[in-house]
Amino acid sequence: MRKLIILIGMVLFLAAASAPAYSQGKISVEGAKLPRIIGVATSGVGGSGQAQAVALASAMQDALGVPVRTMPAHAPAINLRQILAGSAQVQAGGCSQETITDALMGVDIYANQDWGPQDVGLVWYMYDASTALMVRNDSSIKSFADLKGKKFAIYYAAPAYVRGIKGCLAFGNLTLDDMALVEVGSYGDCVKAVADGRADVAHVFGHSPVVYEAAESPHGIRFLAMSHSDKEAWARYFSHCPFRDKMIGKVCVPQMEGLEVANTPYVMWTHMNVSEDLVYLMTKVIVERYNSYKDQHPTFVFMSLNRMREFMRSGLGIPVHPGTVRYLKEIGEWNEADESWNNRVKAGHEKRIQAWDAAVNEALPKRIAVSYTNKAWLEIWNKHRAGTPGLVRRDME
Questions:
Q1: Alpha-carbon distance 385 to 359, whole Å?
Q2: Is 372 exposed, middle or buried, given 0-12, 13-18 or 19+ CB atoms closer than 10 A?
Q3: Whole-number pLDDT of residue 24
Q4: Could you give the C-alpha distances from 328 to 205, 312, 324, in angstroms and in order?
Q5: Does 12 share its domain with 57?
Q6: Across all residues in the chain, what is the average pLDDT?
Q7: Is residue 159 located within the same domain as residue 246?
Q8: Following DSSP, what letter does each residue of 339-368 receive, concatenated?
Q9: Which CATH number fits the domain that encloses residue 8?
Q10: Domain count, the chain
Q11: Is there a domain that residue 366 lies in?
């Protein structure tokens, strides 16, 4: 534990203290008006997401000549509130593409009157997250066949995380009903519940600090491999997690390295009303200063232009922000097929917004509360959005 705290501290310190190494002149665009302070929303304090955001903030600040601060929060919805309020301009670190699709679709907590479908989109690809089920090293669970009836750690505050659990269980032809669920308060608590023996298994991301901590515990950890050749198992997995992919464990705890597991793509994103000039400049910094910041965090190996290009034409399922489009066009990395796909996704979103308005207008005169916990409202909303385009990975259209 002490080693882990020291490691996280060193990453945060080095990321914050190494800004002078980035000095290569300022990046600007004529007529652009930047905020007095640029805010980068991110996941909670002490996690991998915050460390990533701190490193990127240093690079942005040096290149743009404007103070950049990180703004951690424990939920992406809070990050979006920060962006809508203007205190932050982008979210970077600790947010999967799958989570953003919830906001675009207006589902789960976004099916509330104060939310609805949100006009958000991609700024840049951040990293591949090796994802699998974790057990203690001395556990009797050796494969998915041994899972039924075991204690599974779960927390319900993050719908995308719960879908990941359902996907992994479906891979083994199981459901939540087949498990003895151990409800805890956070993702970190899920991992710790396995390490301390309160639960037998948890759904984890191999790069997260709390997993490194569990790996140092007396009982150690292991992961259940997900054979990439089992097409039927992966079909069941993708039925719950359509925006994820397969990968070989990489940039993760040693126990997961080289295993056949799932990939949960993490992205940098923002609201579409955030300044095109600002997002263009931030994208320019990400690409043109890559060599100066890429060693500041292990996951930055995934932020290269090549990885962004690969993701954009395969696993991408959300629209791309105009500022990013502008920069990619400028460097010749945006073609007619990209433009056509992006326009279709944006047009589909406009239809969802219209469907939302129609659903609200039907519900309110009937005094039906527009709440994501109200079944009567959800029936109305699902009826109206049934005729609108869904979101799918680009390579699965």
A1: 8
A2: middle
A3: 62
A4: 30, 11, 6
A5: yes
A6: 91
A7: yes
A8: HHHHHHHHHHHHHHHHHHHHHHHHHGGGT-
A9: 3.40.190.10
A10: 2
A11: no
